[in-house]
Amino acid sequence: MKTRNLLADLPDTGREEQMEMLAGNRHARLLRIISPPRFNSRPFLQQEDEWVMVLQGEGTLEVEGKRLQLAAGDSLLIPAGTPHRVVDTSTDPLCIWLALHLDCFIPSPGETT
């Protein structure tokens, strides 16, 4: 096993977010997302729940028309089907997110995951 620092070895973001899958299976995906400075995304409407946490910097989300400022250590659960988007991110340091996408799969009794 090898340890890894999620705040090190950051790629150049240019004008687009850089997403890297850290772990996943058929029910969940864990991503590191690096946002460029002052990033403004298109709207998202996902079919799975998404839990996000700011690891570094700051980011402002618009969730169902309401703006939420998140700083390092802050997290938010965005339920499936909830309209949201990134409206701004910090410049120094860059905003780095940890995002966990959770499939809404609920096993029936006796079914294994």
Structural account:
It is globular, with a radius of gyration of 15 Å. It has one domain: Jelly Rolls. By secondary structure, it is an all-beta fold. It has a 5-stranded antiparallel beta sheet, with no helix packed on it. A 3-stranded antiparallel beta sheet has the order 5-4-7, with no helix packed on it. Helix content is 0%, strand content 47%. A hairpin with a 3-residue loop joins strand 1 (18-24) and strand 2. The mean pLDDT is 90. It contains no helices and 8 strands. The two termini are 25 Å apart.
Q: How would you summarize what this structure contains?
A:
The chain has 113 residues and is mainly β. It is built from no helices and eight strands.
User: Reading side by side through the largest sheet, how are the strands ordered?
Assistant: 1-2-8-3-6
Report the total helices.
Answer: 0
The helix content is under 10%
Residue share in β-strands = over 45%
List its salient traits.
113 residues; Jelly Rolls; three-stranded antiparallel beta sheet; globular
Spell out the blueprint of helices and strands:
Elements lengths: L17 E7 L3 E8 L13 E8 L1 E6 L2 E6 L3 E4 L5 E6 L5 E8 L11
